[in-house]
Amino acid sequence: MTETPQDPYRPPDPAAPPPPPGGSAELPPPGGYAAPPPPPAPDYSAPPAQPGYGVPADQPPVQPGYAMPPPPPYGAQPAQPGYGAPAGYAPAAPASTSGLTIVALVVAVLALVTSWIPFLGLPLPLIALVLSIVALVKDGKAGRGRGLSVAALVVSAIAVLVALVVTVVLGVLIATNTDTIRSVADCAQQAQQNNWTDAQLQDCLNQVAQDNFGITPSP
Question: What is the DSSP string of 83-101?
């Protein structure tokens, strides 16, 4: 038996029960087919937790005290290790001037001052020269600055040169004028023994100058 499809445009039957409050009565779809059920509402809750990436069962356990660091987040660059100074290492202190260098420089300056004294001014420059050479060698081995030791060496060399020149010149003068020196010494000795006056001593010295140098003093 075939059902007669209902006319959707037919007026409502007055004998039919009234529709429920707050809504209208649902009319059956044309053709006698029921409406499909509404789709389920989407679930916006948090997704299920992903399984952890722990240590596999066949991997040996981590030694105590050496925990594995957590992996960096996706896209982040791993931190590079620093290259600072190793622990317990202090920077080397700047090298200071040795005491021998200061002593050599002081002795060299004193030697330059006394180098103008004939004969007596020669030993001190030689001592300063030796000290300067030793200080220069020790400063080079120790890695210290060699500025002061070089300065002491230069001053000592100048002092030695001056002392040698003065001593040699005076020695030559003495060697070439031995008779004159002896004559002057005789005049002084006679003046002391005979109680000469200043005029008598002057006359003796004038005679020595005339005999040895050909100089005739003015009266």
Answer: --PPTT--PPPPPPPPHHH
DSSP string, 153-216: HHHHHHHHHHHHHHHHHHHHHHHHTHHHHHHHHHHHHHHHHTT--HHHHHHHHHHHHHHHH---
pLDDT for 23 equals: 47
Q: Whole-angstrom Cα distance, residue 37 to residue 102? A: 108
Contact 153, 129 (CB under 8 A): yes
The predicted-structure confidence for 121-163, as pLDDT tens digits, reads as follows 889 999 999 999 999 898 888 888 788 889 999 999 999 999 9
Task: Please say whether the beta carbons of 135 and 98 come within 8 A.
Answer: yes
